[in-house]
Amino acid sequence: MPTEARVSNGTGVENFWLVLLGIAVFLAREVLVGVGACLTRGAGGGVWLLSLISIFGRCFVVLPNFVSSGRPGADCLTKRSLRGANEEKVRLSLLARRGLLTGGNVVGPACPVVTPELVGFAPDEKQKLLLECDERRVILNCSRQWGKSSVTAMKAAMVATATEKATVIAMSPSARQSGEFLMKVREVLLLAGLRRLPKDGVNRMSLLLPNGSRIVALPGVEGTMRGFSAVDLLIIDEAAQVREGQYNAAGPMLAVKNGALWLLSTPFGARGFFWKEWQLGGKLWYRMEAKATECPRLGAEFLEMEKSRLTNDWYRQEYLCEFVGAENGPFREELIRQCYVNGVEGLF
To answer: How many structural domains are present in the chain?
Structure first.
């Protein structure tokens, strides 16, 4: 039996006898001290009675604290121990405290495997292809309001419920966007019948599932990406606006499980790793483009209004999935692409 499960449960016979012995020693000490005090003072019967009441009163006050703090496996994880403990040990301890771990195995309430049919999600043709995709590297270039957040929330829930102790990480440019993503995931899981969705005990924006899996949402800050390992699925939302250093820091966490990496975004100029992977990533990536004109949820009238409101470059970028170059930049995308030559080392 793993150490974490044994310590957290504390149900062994040897633990029971140790606790019983400690209680007996404590009671004997209190009685002897009280009797000695009464004999020394030459007290009468009334004082003897009051002394005994005082002794047992102290036992009732002190014993619960003794049992809860002294017995092996006490449920007393503090914030300091959480910060310093290994994430996997903390996760197992939290599962054990909630009755979801015994003998190192996850037990407790059944964790339904999320599917679009189970939660009443009706994807369009391209969304369905994306949800069924099992490629290790996926890049989605989509228009605004296409529904990528709903699709990625569904995918995160599907992966987390289908695999025990899976880790799904979602990164967005800001904490607000990460929080919105996690809220969508929670909604999916609630529709699937999961009611108890606590945090994982380590990360502020996270969900811990009954099967031991967790979903963590992070803002696009490089420091927050380090420290994770054995990630099953890494989702980078609005990838065109995430800094390249944060993208580079996220890669190693996929190594242990050969986890999947999903990049999803609307274009934001011919720059950054999202544009580079889309244009120059080669056969490593499974690519999908989803224009607004192909989305059944965006009407022609609305798109015409947007076309008249926006400049031509902004409309092409926001709704037609085109990398139109950096705003007010001197070079357009096609000119920049011509500057790349395969097989030639960079000067810097």
So the answer is: 2
236-327-137 Cα angle (round to 5) = 25
The helix/strand count (H/E) of the chain reads as 15, 9
Tokens of 60: 């009732």
Interatomic CA distance for residues 236 and 247, integer angstroms? 8
Question: For 12-123, where are the E strands, in sequence order?
Answer: 101-102, 105-106
Q: DSSP assignment of 273-325, as one string?
A: HHHHHHHH-GGGSEEEEE-GGG-TTS-HHHHHHHHHHS-HHHHHHHHS-----
Q: Is 195 inside any structural domain? A: yes
Co-location of 77 and 142 in the same domain: no
Quote the pTM value.
0.64
| pLDDT tens, per residue, the chain with 348 residues | 444 443 344 445 555 666 677 777 777 766 666 666 555 555 555 555 555 555 555 555 444 444 444 444 433 344 434 444 455 555 555 555 544 444 444 444 568 999 999 999 999 999 999 999 999 999 999 999 999 989 999 999 999 999 999 999 999 888 889 999 999 999 999 999 998 899 988 888 999 999 999 999 988 665 566 778 889 999 999 999 998 888 888 888 898 899 999 999 999 999 899 999 999 988 899 999 999 999 999 999 999 999 999 999 999 999 999 998 654 454 555 555 556 555 555 444
Looking at the fold, whether 101 and 121 belong to one and the same domain comes out as: no
- Torsion of Cα atoms, 112 then 138 then 252 then 270, to 10°: -140
From CA 128, how far away is CA 332, in angstroms rounded?
34
